[in-house]
Amino acid sequence: MVDVLEGLNEEQLDAVTSTEGYVRVIAGAGSGKTKALTHRYAYLVNELGISTSNILCVTFTNKAANEMKKRIRSMIGDNDTGYVCTFHGFCVQVLREDIHVINYPENFIILDTEDTEAILKTVYENAGIQSKNYTFDMARRDIAKAKSEGEAELHRKEPEGRGFSILPAPYICFLQEMQEPVRQQWQG
Prior knowledge:
There is one protein chain. It is built from eight helices and four strands. It is mainly alpha-helical. The protein has two domains: 10-97, P-loop containing nucleotide triphosphate hydrolases (Rossmann fold, 3-Layer(aba) Sandwich); 113-187, no CATH class. The chain is elongated, with a radius of gyration of 22 Å.
């Protein structure tokens, strides 16, 4: 078994071994926040016998959450890392449990900046859009506007009854592009 207290500085040791209440670790980049959090998690599980299902460990980025899960798995020798996720990921889990109360579909998805960038890159490549002429920020602004106005408001009928759309083209492509891969990623 790994000695979870080995290699920790004084502040990290205090964060890892404090057992009353929650612990919030605030520090600059590269200062050992992830190390402190993962060692604390392992300390709670390995030394105090706390179930992984009783630990909530949240961070800001998917990258940090995935790194924490990887380190925790190697320290506790178990694939069950309980609730190690981003703040947004945790909120999505809570929403999915009770979203029916506000009559919202359970299969909603939330895209982070990285997801949006990846989809926009694909959309731009497929549609031949030059990012120097129409930046990702411009596309995100138009997409946000289209979302806030609602698709129902953006699909109108011409007087002759022919349908047309005033949705920005990148938004239409974005919706089409994200449907399958993103849905599979977030629902599968």
